[in-house]
Amino acid sequence: MPLRTIVITVFFLFFISTARGDEPNPPPTQAEGEETLTTYPQPPDDYAGSITVKEIRVRGNTYSDTSTIINYMTIDVGEVFADQGGLESAVDKSLRRLMDTQLFSLIQVYDLPRSDPSQAVIYVLIREGEHWSIGGDFWYGTLGRKNLFGTGKEVGITLGFNRLGAYYHDPYLFNTPLTYSLSLHHYRGSRYSLEPDDGENVVEGASFSLNRTIARFDFGLHLSDDLTLVARFSAEHYYPYNQSEGFDFAPFSADTVHNNNTLGASLTLDLRDTNWNPNSGALLLANYERGFPRLGGDFSYEKYGLDARFYLPIPVSRHTIIASRLYIQRAEGETPYFLLPNIGGLGGLRAPNYGHYTAPTALLASLELRQRLFSLPLFGVWFEGAFFVDVGRAFEEGEKFEVSELLWAVGPSLRLHMFAFGRHSARLDVGFGREGYELYLTWDHAF
Question: What's the pTM value of the predicted model, to 2 decimals?
Fold first, then answer.
């Protein structure tokens, strides 16, 4: 038997074995609430008092610590709810948060029948899933090991044509609300094209290549189930080279090694029903970053902004979603060109890049109408169609905001979502703008 046939056969058998009935993630019907996994025994009609969570029982976990599972839930022993509706909402949210971990192949959460209507016992039944994860894009891949020692920790590596890296994340340090992560990545040969209005000495078509090595440490605190505060330190090493004629963009010099050491913070409010392809809720992210020469860096600057995302289901169809996004970023001081706010590309204005995408101030607004199309029984695959509208612009210093100067992009999108080997999404966007159209194909969400 030819070697190629053997390799293909082994890979196919492995793929089928990991995607059969006990798939590592719930099927789309469960994730989107089509199949009810939670039961709510109703208290007597004449009971209108508060309800206290007396106990949380976790069963079925053979590897994951019980405390780790409870950490991901939004219910605590001793917590008091004003009524049955509040308890039901918390139970449903806990179910979805456990689904979002992608650590289990089966998750069921029950509010057990009560002899005392004021005392609730929450029963959690799980089945362990596959803890290896595979992801990435066309130019790189990631391999991660999740739930190390049953404590939710994750470690992984990134390999690609132009990158190499490793990361480690602990979501609940010593079963406390503290979290931290470490990462080290190297990016080789990234190409940057300057826009004609980026400086008086910059000519059209000027560009340069860049090698980057970035070490980062994040330390966070879960202020509540939905609110997280993170402090960040980043040590970055840059080497620009292969600059074209016309490259002269202060404070960045070609063929010179640069260091950029920063301190930053972010505040995240996550009210989405799920963190993967949400159907309802909102995500608000405020960020601040400052470059410090006193820490050994070469640049002194500040960068701050807001990223707000909203998801609204259409009442007449639970498979139709309106998703919107507002993105605002501002940079001040000696900000390196490649760290300036940018609204172009897959996560921004989906249209041909004709300038005004990178500048000290950036504004982007996006609106999408998303409609689930159909699903396939193999590997938990389902398709989604969308129509998007993007409006935005990056503004130079002193440039006034004028509605007539805003750039725009409109177009259709086709998305594929899959539950095999973790949760993955691929999308094809066709963006039409003032100067033609552009195709975007990637393994990632729009927002």
Answer: 0.81
Contact 338, 421 (CB under 8 A): no
Distance, in Å, from the CA atom of 378 to the CA atom of 30, rounded to the nearest integer, reads: 16
Tell me, yes or no, whether 222 lies in a domain.
yes
Domain of residue 94, residue span = 18-128
Asked if residue 120 and residue 158 are part of one domain, the reply reads no
Reported as a single tens digit per residue, the pLDDT across 253-299 is 555 788 899 999 999 999 998 888 898 999 999 999 999 888 888 88
122: CB partners within 8 A, 6+ apart = 53, 55, 56, 57, 75, 91, 94, 109, 110, 111, 112
pLDDT at 245: 58
What's the pLDDT band for 399 if we cut at 50, 70, 90?
confident
208 vs 4: which has the higher pLDDT: 208
Question: Are 343 and 248 members of one domain?
Answer: yes
What total of structural domains would you count in the chain? 2
Whether 245 and 312 share a structural domain: yes
What's 429's domain CATH number? 2.40.160.50
- HSE value, Cβ hemisphere, 13 Å, CA-based, for 362: 24
pLDDT at 420 over 90: no
Residue at a domain's end among 128, 157, 184: 128
* 297 shares its domain with 154: yes
> Are residues 153 and 279 located together in one domain of the fold?
yes
**Residue 86 placed within a domain:** yes
CB proximity list for 88: less than 8 A, separation 6 or greater: 38, 40, 111
Q: What is the mean pLDDT of residues 402-430?
A: 85
